[in-house]
Structure formats: structure tokens, C-alpha cells
């Protein structure tokens, strides 16, 4: 309905005493009368009727006053109303200012339903189609790799253990020192290693040397020991250790009046003073 054009009258707006009533011009009716109202044959008392009209006028006047309504908290905005026209509120909801539990979302579901909010079921599971995301951890159900990989020439898809056909990188086995040779090995098959013996040259004669299969070197010579004077024999090969030294007289000695001291590069054969000169066969053994 349109706004009335006549000015609002607030009845009995002042507080006075009525001469005929001999009391105040406004008196609030008793609760029983307020609850049930006046009966058909009853006439309201002047002061009570004045109270009711004044009360209505005051409330209507309050509604006509201009008021500003303000929202605060998660929702903000204001609007002004005079009580005589419609009010439009322009409000804003602060981002992330309120929370809802999954149970508050009525159409959330654990099923694989397009354009619906996902909610886990009672077991914490949900159904989905293709999930596009960065994942971490291990799959509990995967049995093979999506794409097989080749490891050292052998295909591997993760379904079983494998034995590779070869090593990832070939290795070279080489022999050095007295025996030399080398061969490349990648583990794909057996190999043969060709060797060359270059580490020691033997010399066989009255004076000579040779290397035995055990690696021991045997050297020998014939030495003439003068009367009461030591003789020194320098080896054809220098040793790192001496195992044994043996001297065997050949001529000129009738008793054991001699001895030998073997070093790493030479041996000294000594004659006991008073003995005559003699010739001896000397053998020294040791390691290079």
C-alpha cells in the first residue's frame, strides 16, 4: 500500500493530568485486560484508551525513522531504510571465514559422480575415474611397470626377478710383471686370456740362473777360494730375500774348513786360515 499523505498523529503525546479523571492522561491497562481485550458492552477508560493509542503511535513513528542496518563478522554490508520503502542489502562474505563439515554438504557423495563434491564413505574410501595429480609413495596394487625397462640388455617390467645378459660396463682384466696379457669382459660369455711370459730370462751354463714354477730364483756358479782369503760372488739377479746358500768343494779341500755368507746381491765364501786354496760349486736360492 502507498505511504499515507496525512501526518502521523501520536495520540496523547504529553504527560498531563485530566481534570475530570483527576489523574494521569495515560494508564497502562492491567495484564488481564491486555490479554483478553474489552468486551462488547464494556467502554474503555479514557486513560487506558489514551495509553493504547499513544503506544501505537510511538511504535509507528519509530518504524518511519531512517535506520541503517549493518552486517559484521563473516558477512559485511550496510543498508538504510525509512520504514516506508523496500530495502536492498549489498553484502559480502569474507573468503575462508567460515567452516562446514562434510556432513553439512547434502549432495556430497563417495560415488564417481561428475560435478559433485567428493566425500569419503564410512571406511574412508571414494570412487574416482582418472585422477590427475602429483603422487608420492608406493602403489599397493601395482604388479608391473607401466613401461618395461631394459637393464644391461634384459627387459624388466617388475613382474619377476631377472638375470642380465651382460654387465652394464665392460671391464678389462690385465696381467702385468713376469706374465702379461689383457682381455675385455662384459659378463655376456666366457673369455680366453692370451699371456706372454716376459718377466725373467734364464741363463744356463757353468754360471747361470733360472726361475722355478714357484717363483723362486735359483743361481749357481763355480768359485776359486784363495788360501786364507775370502772370495766374493756377485749375483746375476738381485734378490729381495734369501732362502738358502750351499757351497760344495770340488778340488783342494780335505776337511770342512770353510763357510759362506749370502747377501741379497752377493755371497762371500771364506777359507779358514791355514787351508790351501780350493774350488767350490755355489748355489743360492731366493726371491726377486
Characterization of this structure:
By secondary structure, the chain is mainly beta. Among the domains are: 17-64, no CATH class; 170-199, no CATH class; 208-287, Sandwich (Immunoglobulin-like), CATH 2.60.40. Helix content is 9%, strand content 31%. It contains 2 helices and 17 strands. The chain has helices spanning 31-36, 46-64, and strands at 17-18, 23-24, 67-71, 75-81, 90-93, 149-151, 154-156, 171-175, 179-185, 196-197, 208-211, 217-225, 231-234, 241-251, 258-262, 266-271, 278-287. The strands form 6 sheets. Strands 11-12-17-14 form a 4-stranded antiparallel beta sheet, with no helix packed on it. The protein has a 3-stranded antiparallel beta sheet with strand order 3-4-5, with no helix packed on it. It has a 3-stranded antiparallel beta sheet with strand order 8-9-10, with no helix packed on it. β4 (75-81) and β5 (90-93) form a beta hairpin. The radius of gyration is 63 Å and the shape is rod-shaped. The model has no long low-confidence stretch (mean pLDDT 82).
Spans where pLDDT lies below 50 across 5 or more residues: none
Helical segment tally? Answer: 2
Termini separation comes to 129 Å
- CATH top level of the domain at 208-287 is Mainly Beta
User: Any guess at the CATH architecture of the domain at 208-287?
Assistant: Sandwich
**CA radius of gyration:** 63 Å
Shape: rod-shaped
Structural class per helix/strand content?
mainly beta
In the CATH scheme, what's the topology name of the domain at 208-287?
Answer: Immunoglobulin-like
Q: Beta-strand level of the residues, as a percent range?
A: 25-35%
- The pLDDT mean sits at 82
Strand order of the largest sheet: 11-12-17-14
Helix content: under 10%
